[in-house]
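Q: I'm building a small set of examples for a reading group on sequence design. Run inverse folding on the following structure and report the sequence directly after it, with nothing in between.
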């Protein structure tokens, strides 16, 4: 059997968050994965399937998909080339290099880096690792829901699951996981920041939308277009996907509160999901009747992320003040 690169992560009850929402809040601590985020689940699985005899992998990334690809490649003994946009902070470039990857910075946003990665995959004969748009990624990500069911025990079902959405790979994986365990009636709250809101724009327009630019500081949510599968799920009458936005300031406030209360530092992309609780989105949805007033346990996917340290946090604070 192929080696699995990801870990089973803890499901922690948060007393502080539970107080805020009025129901038990459980945190799926994907920040504790090797490579720092949930991405290793899907990317590890995809690399096992597609890159075993590869000359090397190439991945376009805001940072975290790249971290996962570099980690998997190192474990498999193949080379990794990661193409990042200029918005990826130097600290991540360093972390990628420390993980043994060759890093190339191309363009302003992820979409530019992705065009280059696809080109190099072709010309250099490398295995292309997409960060969010592939069924093998979704299958890998789905394993986190199987773990949630095991952690909650047989008689407990979530009232809702909260996820961040960039290109929609995490969302597709969570939905696949919910399908696998027969929980398709569990609503999903899909969180983005204003300015990295391609999924919300697609849901509003009733079709896939390509954003002009990424103006949010949550750069790892910064795909200009959501993947088709995520959009198709949003149109499905069998699922309840509630797409919600928070501001960068709310995402930043969320990561600071999370650091204070849970003693864990995560990046802005993850802050979007945490802000669903801290900024009162969940309570508002309950008041609006879009989530039940008597909500079962809320599961928040703490997707994690490596594009943060204390210096970056301070930079973000200054940037958002000005
Ligand atoms: N980040 C991707 C895409 O960036 C990347 O290259 O790393 N939370 C974190 C910490 C993430 O890094 C990402 C995606 C997401 C959430 C959203 O996941 P997605 O893209 O599968 O919806 C441009």
């Amino acid at each position: 059997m192929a080696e699995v690169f990801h870990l089973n992560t803890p499901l922690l009850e948060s007393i502080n968050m539970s107080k805020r929402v009025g129901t038990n809040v459980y945190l799926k601590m994907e920040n504790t994965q090797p490579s720092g985020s949930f991405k290793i689940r899907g990317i590890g699985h995809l690399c096992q399937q597609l890159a075993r005899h590869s000359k090397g992998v190439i991945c376009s990334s805001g940072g975290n998909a790249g971290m996962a690809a570099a980690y998997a490649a190192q474990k498999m003994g193949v080379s990794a080339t990661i193409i990042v946009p200029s918005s990826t902070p130097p600290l991540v470039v360093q972390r990628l290099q420390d993980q043994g990857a060759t890093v190339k910075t191309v363009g302003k946003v992820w979409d530019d880096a992705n065009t280059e990665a696809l080109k190099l995959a072709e010309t250099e004969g490398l295995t292309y690792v997409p960060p969010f748009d592939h069924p093998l990624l979704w299958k890998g990500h789905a394993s986190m829901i199987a773990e949630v069911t095991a952690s909650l025990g047989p008689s407990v079902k979530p009232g809702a699951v909260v996820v961040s959405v960039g290109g929609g790979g995490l969302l597709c994986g969570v939905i696949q996981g919910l399908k696998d365990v027969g929980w398709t009636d569990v609503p999903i709250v899909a969180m983005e920041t204003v300015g990295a809101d391609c999924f919300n724009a697609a849901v509003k327009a009733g079709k896939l939308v390509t954003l002009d630019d990424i103006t949010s500081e949550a750069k790892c949510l910064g795909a200009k277009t959501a993947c088709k599968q995520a959009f198709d799920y949003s149109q499905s009458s069998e699922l309840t996907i509630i797409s919600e936005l928070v501001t960068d300031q709310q995402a930043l406030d969320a990561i600071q509160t999370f650091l204070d209360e849970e003693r864990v530092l995560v990046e802005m992309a993850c802050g979007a999901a945490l802000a669903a609780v801290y900024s009162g989105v969940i309570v508002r949805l309950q008041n609006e009747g879009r989530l039940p007033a008597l909500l079962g346990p809320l599961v928040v996917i703490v997707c994690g992320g490596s594009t943060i340290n204390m210096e970056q946090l301070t930079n973000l604070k200054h940037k958002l003040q000005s």
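The chain has a mean pLDDT of 97.
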